[in-house]
Amino acid sequence: MGEPRRPGRDPLNADPFIQLRLLDVQALDLRLDQLAHRRRTVPEVAEGERLRAERAKLGSELATAQAQVSDLTREQRKAETDVEQVRTRRARDEQRLQSGQVGSARDLQSLQSEIESLQRRQSDLEDVELDVMERLEAATAHEQELSARETELGSKLAEVDQARDRAYASIDAEAEQARRERTDTAAGVSDDLLKLYEKRRAQHGGVGAAALRQRRCEGCRMELDARYLGQIAAKPDDAVLSCEECGRILVRTLESGV
């Protein structure tokens, strides 16, 4: 509750019609505040932020998957090279064996032993090659899955951003219309009264002026006591009053009850 305010405390006078116009200014300011709040809380903004965070995380996962595919591709090439080298050497030795170029029994035995060793080595390397191929196939499938999800996420994000921009455009158009109406409505209100209104509006959560209806201030929703209402009734119609409960400019209406 603010400090009690007495009629006449604010040394201002304004035509009753102008005071009623101030209520119209207040209504438009509230409308502009609501539109500003709507703009700040457009659902697509939060959804866009969520999707961007998801895309950033997915991008990191995709980069890791791509690096793994690259590493496994190099590993596969090395495994293929190793197998091919052993295969080539074994084929050369077998050709020597079959051609009868080996003269001594000792050399023949040594060559046969080397061919057997190369055969085992080739088998081991082929197992390594197969394992790398299987891991590369799995890693490539995972990379493709992440890439597809990233593409899908990008499409969703583009749709959300477009919806956000449409919402912004609609709200901005409403706000521009309200600002024009506010300018026209406030044109007939004196600078002193507007300054007082803006001061009270800043002090009281965006509501600087309120109507007195049925003995109740519509700003704080408090019913004024009979003593204060009697003081209001004794004031000239053009006196600018303040609510003794909340301090807002109090505008008398045909339904004031005084």
Percent helix range: over 70%
As for the number of domains, it is 2
Q: State Rg.
A: 43 Å
How many alpha or pi helices?
5
Average pLDDT score: 91
Spatial shape: rod-shaped
Reading off the top of the CATH hierarchy, the class of the largest domain is best stated as: Mainly Alpha
What does the largest sheet look like? 4 strands, mixed
Uncertain residue ranges:
1-10
Strand order in the sheet with the most strands: 2-1-4-3
Termini Cα gap: 23 Å
Key terms for this structure?
2 domains; disordered N terminus; 5 helices; Helix Hairpins; rod-shaped; mainly alpha; 258 residues; 4-stranded mixed sheet
Q: In brief, what are we looking at here?
A:
With about 260 residues, the chain is mainly alpha-helical. It is built from 5 helices and 4 strands, in the order ααααββαββ.
